[in-house]
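The freezer alarm interrupted the setup, so I double-checked each line after restarting. Inputs confirmed:
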Amino acid sequence: MRRQNEHVIPPETRATPDLSSGKYLVMWQGPQHPGITGNMSLRLVADGDTVVDCETHVGYLHRGFEKLMERRLWMQNFPLVCRIAVPEPDFNEYCYAAALEELAGVTVPEKAVWLRTLSLEMIRLASFLMWIGGQAGAFGHGTIAQWSVTMRDYVLDLFEELSGGRIYHMYIIPGGVRGDVPDGFLDHVLETMQVIKKNLDDIELVMFHNAVFKMRAVGLGYIPPDWVDKYGITGPNARSAGVARDLRKDLGYLAYPQLDFKLITGGRSDAFERAELRLAEMYQSIDLIRQIVARMPKDGPFRERLPNPLHWKIPAGETYVAAECTRGEYGFYVVSDGGDKPRRVAVRGPSYTHAVSVMERLVRGVNIADVAGLMVSLHTYPPEIER
Amino acid sequence: MSDKKIIPAPLANEGLPPDERGLFCDAAPREYEPARGIMEDFANWARSESLWILGFGTGCGAIELRPLMTSRFDMYRYGIQPRPTPRQSSVFVIGGYASVKTLKRIVRSYEQMMGPKFVVALGSCTINGGMYWDSYNTIKRIDQYIPVDVYITGCMPRPEALLAGFQELKKIIRAGRAEGQNEYARNFEWFKANQKKVIKDWNMPDYNW
Amino acid sequence: MNELAKELAARYGARDWHDRRGDLSSTVVDPIRLHDTLAWLKDSAGYAHLSFATAVDNIERGVFTLTYTVRNHEQGHSLMVHADVDRANPVVDSIHLLWGQGWTYQREMKEWFGIDFPGSPRVDEEFVLEGWEGPPMMRRDFDSLAYSDATYEGRPGRVTHDPATRMQERLYPEAGK
Amino acid sequence: MEPTLLGRIGYAFLSLFVITNYGLLLIGSMARISAKVQGRVGQPVYQPYIDIIKSSVKRNAISHGIMFYLGPVFRLAGGVGTYMFIPAVFGSVVFRNFSDSGDLLLVMYFIFFGQLGMALGAGEGGHPYSAIGVSRGLAQMTAFEVPFALSVIAVAIQYGTLDINAIVGAQQGGFLNWTLFTNPLAVVAAIIAFLGMSMHNPFSVVIAPQEIPIGPPTEYQANLLGMLQTNRAIFNGAKLVLYMNLFFGGATNILVMVVKTFLIYFINVFVGQAFPRFRTDQSIRFFLGVPTLIGIASVIIAAV
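Predicted 3D structure, all chains:
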């Protein structure tokens, strides 16, 4: 029995169990499995109740975005990019738009910067709310999931009011945002934040002070701090290992340098700490949204005039634009050859490392019943692996 | 239920190793005659009021199933609930585009479901390819590969649209028109040919139930 | 950053240094020196975080341009290291011993572009595709639409418009006549 | 007036019919109460009926051999057997079942029997998830049997009999005679064991959808699943009635029975909505810890 606060560093080398010996049970977790995030699968080799080896299999959601984007005009790609990561499409929109603006030399008006920041923080909150439901659900606590997904829905209502879209917003476009703030929208934002904050207090009480949740999550999936660079771990997973990295601070994009927020780090680096850290970031998001609403410029243009998008040619060049999404570093690498279509667009999703390399190593030695919880605690999302 | 005593044609199950062939059935599916009169109406009513969704998020449409399951939209009110295993579920929700790799799993899961089984396809991409009309890895029409009862359009369909779609499915079931299982059995060879044309790496039994 | 540029040029013959942005630069090395450059950047220059690795098909020049983006978090600077490999015989040294996630990128590049990385774990396995028979699909000469039309049956009635002519017809119907 | 054997069998069927319907409605209403905790409306109370009808009118079904069929049959036999040897209503002719023919040991055997039969049948299904679910289920059952058995021993020592009718009879005459007040430690141990027995959270890892779906019934479908669902109602009812008889003074009419069993079952939902699940090893550790000590203490108190 592993004691609390005693970390077992997972083995990095792969065990080679002799499958013909009859000692091991090979089974697939996924793709048809409620205990897996999204549509991917794990091939687990179990010795009794303990996983000894794991292979991840991805590609069930491969749509070939990067190829499709090479076939479409710069502007036509906008409906496509948001579909790469469904729970938080705005980060895709922002990264792509910012890359285009950088290549084409477009500056964004002040108001659009604030609206973009608002949109990104709102989707961060929504995505975390969905995640906390998944984390509680993976340990069998359905009540939390029922509450938090509803709270996420209230955020989506705000998006609907702002952009007309519920899941896919296509709100952040090159040169600014697609529309101005509707009347009374900022008041609705503040009201919703009040409701969500109240609900988060409930969730904290029921989930984080729960003895059974602690028993399951404490000590599960310990990430050693030296893995952060070795495996390219970013976001809350890295911060909970005590590595103070947040692109919002490091890159200082959009309005983040003007906002007042602290970097939250941990040190115990297990599933429980990661969950606590994300809860703290949710509170931080609510705080940031309130700051943004208070400091948002009242008027001014929200969009720069662009050339005819159907004949828009972007000067040759390449760039890499990253943003801090809920799971870590989300980046777009865009290459233009001077034509009206991209030469190459590559997406860097944080799940690429978290769900494949890190997951395969962390899962060794873990009880089968904890695999789902471990996977959710890394906050992975398969479509950004396979695009 | 009354069964027609027809011996189905044997399947080839090529591509399987010889020792695995014995694990799977060698018979093609057959049609089941519905019961007559009020018995079938009653059975259909029960089927329509107890729709168990297979817990398989095949695409991005699955993200709207979460709000549907939870307290805002609460599909339990309508007797709809998720089930984790294909053996026990009666509705297969195709959540949007299906890549070839997923289609293989869709076919397998669909065949493992017990009849009568219903398919609800979400999103424009299941109807005609939608956004991914020129993608090399997604199929364009799901009804080429498995029979579909209800399409719900949109990208992606809202939870309200999903609820409306499920109500429509209930109407179809009650009218006795949701005979996807029999359709699959009747056109088995056509469906199989379509599936095999797309799924190049066919290393599974032809029909597994 | 120019010291780094000079150092890289002296050690590994890096050339074409560009400052793309205040915190983003790019440079080009020979593919044979790619592994050593990255190892030095990681171990001695503080560029310890591999953001991503990918390839661009420059079919006109007959090369694949590999791009490794590494980031130095202490200095807040990212560096894109490019290397051109021959399109006819694309073989590059594997970096899976430098970064734990490197093998995944290499698996992807092997499947999507056909670039080989000898020694990388599971590099010959299928990554996202299954039973793929065509050429590596991210190459520029692979036509996605033609493949899709030939393989997947569409629903009749779907029409695709060219956006430029379509908008012209809709907005200025008299101009087209 | 003593009814004939034929009459008693008829009464037993009537009693079984009542407990089946009661169990189904109980499951339905508890699902609705859980839904209220979660902030939603919840399924209709009669939803379990529709589910059973739907499962029974499935058109095709698969088989994995004869043991696969016998699994649910054993389970149902376990449920019915448990109920048949417990008096549902003390002193009633209709609802006393065959309680004078069997005693507490037989009932405990039947509680165990259904699970074992199910394990055999599910193992025959050949699905790895079933196998894991079975091993989890049996391990957890062995664990919760310890505090349960200890509290039953305490009750048997206290009343000097294993006959359930006699135990209920000894508790009549005011609620202070209930075991709840005469030997509270035994009741605490038994109620904790009951949480494990009814497989609600936090002891639901056996049938958990997330942690390997969904345990033993993975391969069961169609009418076999309908059988399992029916049994769930009967078995729940039987266990509730047993607990009511042993610890809460039994019932002298059907209304008291309904109220008491509802409240006992409500403990499950109350706990289940507030906790995630234990892993199997954690739940075994839990059951063999404090609840077992409480059980031993109750035996000592009853013996001294």
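Quick read of the result. The domain at 65-386 of chain A is CATH 1.10.645.10 (Cytochrome-c3 Hydrogenase; chain B).
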